[in-house]
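Hallway conversation turned thread

IA: we were arguing at lunch whether anyone had actually written out Multisubunit Na+/H+ antiporter, MnhC subunit end to end. Turns out nobody had. So, for the record, here is the sequence (109 residues) and right after it the structure tokens. Reply here if something looks off.
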Amino acid sequence: MEALVAVIIGVLTACGVYLSLRRRSFPVVLGITLLSYAVNLFLFAMGRLTIGRPAVIDAAAAGYTDPLPQALVLTAIVISFAMTAFVIMLALKARAELGDDRVDGNRPT
């Protein structure tokens, strides 16, 4: 299972870097989104998930799971969603103003 999660994180990171290096704005936004998914999955996997244990410390329970990775990933998901919406609106505004969505600023000849 760990190897599968590592492969998924690697594929998400590779696709995110590849798409982030494109000239058009939509693939760049998609690449940044994939990179954020890879980071979120990495943080979630590094949190050592424990199944069937409470998230809050209880004297009667044998153990507990650490709620910090889940809280970090949830916060990161909300922030990345807001940033993605902002960047999409910025790209749409740039497309409307310039008539092109290239991120390097060069016009096609």
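OS: looked through it. The helical segments are 2-20, 25-46, 68-98.
IA: good, adding that to the notes. Residues 15 and 60 are 46 Å apart (CA to CA).
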